[in-house]
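for the recovery benchmark. tokens below, seq after
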């Protein structure tokens, strides 16, 4: 095991990105895919719970449900406030990510 001490959080993020990119390239070359799980803490947990609540509207069980879902999707494209009403603000995220230059 190698332990590295880096100057600041930006340096840590850059090093982590480099390591993850190398693993992703190696996995994609060897198996044709790369799968990664990331813990996002309470922020991500809220998003997952919101998505679970809306899962039945994404894959409805009845013909009426499918028609209603399609109508809502068309409305969401034209009227942004429909998104807030039917999906809620929990699934929307405004996260600014730095450009690490990878």
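predicted aa per position
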């Amino acid at each position: 095991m190698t332990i590295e001490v880096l100057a600041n959080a930006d340096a840590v993020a850059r090093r982590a990105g480099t390591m993850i990119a190398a693993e992703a390239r190696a996995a994609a070359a060897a198996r044709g895919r790369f799968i990664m799980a990331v813990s996002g803490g309470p922020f991500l947990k809220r998003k997952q719970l919101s998505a679970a609540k809306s899962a039945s509207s994404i894959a409805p069980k009845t013909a009426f449900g499918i028609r209603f879902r399609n109508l809502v999707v068309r409305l969401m494209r034209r009227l942004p406030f429909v998104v807030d009403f039917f999906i809620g603000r929990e699934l929307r995220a405004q996260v600014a990510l730095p450009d690490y230059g990878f």
